[in-house]
Amino acid sequence: MKRLTCLALPLLLAACSSKAPLNYHTLTSAAEPASQARAADFRFALQGVSVPPQVDQPQLVVRQGEGIALLENERWIAPLADEVRSALSADLSRDLGTLDLGDAPRGSGAPVLRIKVDLQRFDSQPGRGVQQDALWILRLAEPGGERVLTCGSRISQPAGASYAEVVAAHRQALAALARRIEPVARAFVADGATVCPAG
To answer: Which keywords, in A-to-Z order, does the entry hold (predicted)?
Structure first.
């Protein structure tokens, strides 16, 4: 029995050592460039972001042919909804020239624009591209009540074949979404007759 155990141990260790390592991904950049944008005359608070339940997994979920693959060794470093919110917060802070208040106490002073983003599609196709469909809602409290504007955007980005390139394409798509929200947010606070952009 001891001889069998001794023979089995090296095989077990070899099997463990050959297991593919876990790779972790994030949608946030290592360092955000300094903002060159004109500072908005209001502050904003990005609410929690929702993502489709099909991709709300620790693993990356990608399309492969006609099917879907859950990539066991390719993981998000944090829950996907948190990753998306962090990336959007950084992009909107840069584009609006002001910090995201999040859930911090509001206090008095400049008006606070609340922004809610609902990602209804978060598709990944290695070697082809990514697509994000987003519903975004702007809310501004005023003495006479609350103004609300609901808009939608569909954003596609080409992606390389590697999973890191797919993640980078999603990062670019989120930056493009922030660029669509920024001018509408400025106009919405200044003028109640603001309309949504096409697409």
So the answer is: Signal
